[in-house]
Write a structure and sequence with these properties.
By secondary structure, the protein is of the alpha+beta class. It is built from two helices and four strands; from the N terminus they run E-H-E-E-E-H. Helix 1 links the parallel strand 1 and strand 2.
Length: about 80
Amino acid sequence: MAAPVEEHCPTCGAKWVPIQWGLPVDEVRVAAEAGLVALGGCFTQDDGTDPRWQCPNEHRWTNGRRDERRSQAAVLEACAGTG
Ligand SMILES: [Zn+2]
């Protein structure tokens, strides 16, 4: 088991959801409708500057490249949770 992802909004400290970039597959769409994933849209910089996390107040942030896999793992976890 991977360690659970822990992230906090650096602006307001609220609970986060991972941002999924690109066209969402059905599982991601369901998770997004449940509020477990944020949809980032189709266009990304893909240079490590894309935000990977979003809070309910719509702050977005990233910690850089290392967050790409963490965010993706969190998306998959959210999808599994809607299973
Ligand atoms: Zn925030």
